[in-house]
Amino acid sequence: MAYRHFYFGFLSTKMSESNVEIRYILKFYYKNGTNAIQVAKKICDFYRSNAVSVRVAQNWFKRFQSDNFDVIDEPRFGPPVTDKVDEKVEQNRHIEVREKSWELTTEQF
Q1: Residue 71 lies inside a defined structural domain of this protein
Q2: Inside any domain, residue 93
Q3: Model-level pTM?
Q4: Are residues 61 and 33 in the same domain?
Q5: Is residue 37 part of a domain?
Q6: Where is the Mos1 transposase HTH domain positioned along the sequence (predicted)?
Q7: Which residues in the chain show pLDDT less than 50?
Q8: Do the Cβ atoms of 14 and 5 come closer than 8 Å?
Q9: What is the separation of C-alpha 43 from the centre of its chain, rounded to a whole number of angstroms?
Q10: Which of 77, 82, 84, 105 has the fewest Cβ atoms surrounding its Cβ within 10 A?
Q11: Integer CA distances (angstroms), 71 to 32, 54, 65, 67, 93, in order
């Protein structure tokens, strides 16, 4: 059964409240001039070791630098990629993973 991605209000079922909370913390530290690497370490020390990666913190800081301070993801349209994968597998059960991943990646562009 494919995982479905539903939206209600401003939070998706896939994005937990803790993710939004972490994004607000990233925003706070960004506005105070703290380095993304330091912020990721502080968050992981306080919450859990994998609460946010340095790369994710850097991506959010880059977003904030472009004056986009919205911490809620924009709604996504279309079926999740997992639906496409399930469909391709149903068409041919003897496929190679590398072949199908290439097809799915190139379909997005």
Answers
A1: no
A2: yes
A3: 0.57
A4: yes
A5: yes
A6: 20-68
A7: 1-15, 109
A8: yes
A9: 17
A10: 77
A11: 17, 17, 13, 12, 40
How many angstroms separate the CA atoms of 72 and 35, rounded? 22
**26 burial type by CB count under 10 A (0-12 exposed, 13-18 middle, 19+ buried):** buried
Show the tokens assigned to 58: 């850097």
Per-residue model confidence (pLDDT) at position 5 = 40
What pLDDT does residue 62 have? 97
Cα gap 50→29, rounded to integer Å: 18
User: Side chain identity at 98, as an amino acid letter?
Assistant: R
Q: How many structural domains is the chain composed of?
A: 2
Q: What is the pLDDT of residue 109?
A: 46
- Tell me, letter by letter, the H, E, C secondary structure of the chain: CCCCCCEECCEECCCCHHHHHHHHHHHHHHHCCCCHHHHHHHHHHHCCCCCCCHHHHHHHHHHHHCCCCCCCCCCCCCCCHHHHHHHHHHHCCCCCHHHHHHHHHHHCC
**Which amino acid, residue 86?**
D
